[in-house]
Amino acid sequence: MKLKTLGAGAVGALALLLTVAQAKVLINAAGATFPYPIYGKWFEEFGKKNSEIQINYQSIGSGGGIRQLTEGTVDFGASDMPMTDEQITKLKVKPMHFPTVLGGIVPTYNLPGVTQDLKFTGAALADIYLGNIKKWNDPALAKVNAGVKLPDAEIVVVHRSDGSGTSFVFTDYLSKVSPQWKKDVGSNSSVKWPAGIGQKGNEGVAGFVKQTPNAIGYVELIYAAQNKMGYGLMQNAAGTFLKADFNSVTEAAAGAAKSMPDDFRLSITNAPGKKAYPISTFTWLLIPSKIEDGGKKKAIVDFLHWMLQDGQKYCADLGYAPLPKEVVAKEEKAIARIQ
Amino acid sequence: MATSATLRAHPGPGARSFFSRLATGDEIARLLTLAFASLILLLTVALVWQLWINSAPARHKFGLSFLVSSDWDPVNGQFGSLPFIYGTVITSALALLIAVPLGVGAAIFLAELAPPKTSSIFTFFIELLAAVPSVIYGLLAIFTLVPLMRDHVEPFLKTTLGFLPFFKGTILGVGYLTAGMILALMTLPFIISISREALLEVPTEQREAALALGATRWESTWQAVLPWARLGIFGSIFLGLARALGETMAVTMVIGNGTAISASLFAPGYTIASVIANEFAEATGDLYPSALVALGLVLFLLTIVINALARLLIIATARQGSSHP
Amino acid sequence: MTFRNRWRKILSHVMLSLTGVCAVVAVSLLFVILGYLVYTGWRAIDWNFFTQTPKPPGETGGGMANAILGSLEIVLFGTIVGLPVGFMAGIYLSEFGGKTFAALVRYTADLLNGVPSIIIGIFAWSVVVKHTHQFSGMAGGFALGLILIPITARSTEQFMSTVPQTLREGALALGASRWKMIATVVVPAAYRGIATGMILGVARIAGETAPLIFTSGDNQHHSTFWNEPTLTLPLAIYLRGTAPYEDWHRQAFAAGMVLLFMVLFANVAARLVLSRGITVQK
Questions:
Q1: In this model, does residue B13 exceed pLDDT 60?
Q2: In this predicted complex, what is the ipTM?
Q3: Which candidate from C129, C221, C242 shows the least CB-CB separation from A73?
């Protein structure tokens, strides 16, 4: 009686299992949270056009992507921080870096009374994260935000707790605009943060800042925009205050296209140019240079081609900027080098 | 089980050989179940062995200094477990501080004062609390407890008790205190149900004798009943502690991920379980993951010790209950 | 009445009322939790939740179909792995055990019971994930099965040892062999308790999250659970609850409500089964 129903249930579950297990090419990827919104969109759209390919992406941070690629539990990884030579040597198959999009990191904050967009100089942002500027109404912030009533409240500084490419780009920028930051903290995917609290992933930082009054965090533009959170203007190398958007991030990569090295590892923070957003970055897919499984290789190569052509069209809606034409051309050639 | 000892297949005069015993099926049954029982032993040994060898790089590099170093720096390859041991101890201590008075109080009510039907119904609901998954506690904590702590409780503590080092620092809503509170909520049902059972074991003569001597109801409970049940109550505390030490999800969601030791309860911290949960999937290299496994080893040993103590206390209670006239 | 006596009486009333308050607080916590979850989760449940897979961040209309299925698959696998082992081990401890070996197994089972589930996750990772080079539902199910084994073993032993010796002796006196006696007399006599223990154990592993983070992982699609990362309901709750998107919060609460109802239902059912008493055929 009871056993029969249990048995029937087990058989039913098994049948369900088998129906779901169709003959698909299943690809596993993991890595950066920075581009997750657009990667999610891409994999979904690509999957619609190529129904026999299914790409699963775990948004666990750039450090996680590099780790899982090294362990071999994923077919490709994703990172906003180019792999170091030391990390590359740990992989049996050398990984290739393929830039996918450009994105901007914005200082997002939660200030209930403040309706205007705040302006930040690079030095001020560094001082906030160094713990030198402790309150919102500090003179350094008030100076560039004339006319804004900044609250007399402690700044709740939020950074990443996990190994993060976003952190790498952010600290890379801070090192360029603050000698004290460069000396005391440096730039890496994971640093000894002098102040603040850590959250996991772009999602965690955005989530925490959204819930906590007087908090500030650094996230990719789309996380702040999609969640209707306030984010500030940054002062770029030319002295202009501007927000991260399609144009300013594209501008930041304008000069980069010509100086792009063959392995595509390039930093574009604090780029020159009047309209360039200072905390911009490429983000990369880490593809093994040799893929043994023929089906997977074809699927990945097809995706890369699709990404460079059709995929770039999704950037504008999601707050990322497309790759410069020269970079796309270079990548198309590089794809052929995947064995 | 003296009877079954004689029933066991002890070879006596005219005993049958192994294979004829096998034929009856008894030996098969015994060997089969023995195999499964041995599997438990095997799995535990394998567990300890895997923990040991996967933590080797960290153990070789740091040795015992791993236990006292408070430097957790994955980038530079420096790993010390002290911040996490500290976080684990502090949050568990906080949890017990809140849950023990509340729990023992509730247990006293349920064992001494409540009519039996009410007592069973209440206990039924309280034991259901123990079945709620940790991640659900965490989810609720993020949206209810954290704002409560951030907007009301912690500012209140800061203004009234801010001179103490425990209540200084930036108020975030997450941190040691919040983690301690959610842990208190999770250990509460264990303390209540086990303490209640310990109190029910106390013979009525104890109460009656105290009351006969003129004690008030409370005095009888406090001076005659509780001391009798104290071993069982301590057992419940240790069991609750063991559970609190290993609690992962709810703590991870509200502790704030801080790798430094801080006296302030408002500060973000980390417990051993939550740092493993957060960092294991992304720990690159050889040393970093092995440091996390080494932390796991520390937690494992800690829970063994506490669990053993808990069981000793509970056994001692049973023995005391049966030996006293 | 002297002042001191009056004071003692007042103290007694106050303290005892306080204990009543403690008890009421403890019980009401359950209802507060339930109530809040139902209040927020109820409005979030829609048809999408049960039929759709997750959508990219920022888009609405996604659901947890794959998480629900994944949980079912992984819990089923864990049950298949853990229940028989625990059950058989429990029988051994209750019916066959010698003194020292049984004591050793009992001690080890209690030890395993007390091990934090994240450590079990590390073990499952090092045994399955590391060698298959793959996050998989199977690895997660293995971890859950490991957690289930000692729970089942101890509860099976506990309930089988409550069966009176007279029952066993009677069966043997009638000429039954040992295993027949166990299978046809003792186990059926204790089946209520054994079943309760099993249901409670399965309900417990259904809610586990920590060991699944780095064994079965995350997946946006339906997956084949033995060689692909498989999303589960508890992990989905964790991932959605800690993200900034309102829609994801909504889904987390809906999932939380579903999970909690399933777990509580199993617990209540099991306890009611048990409270009907362990019937002993005369």
A1: no
A2: 0.89
A3: C129
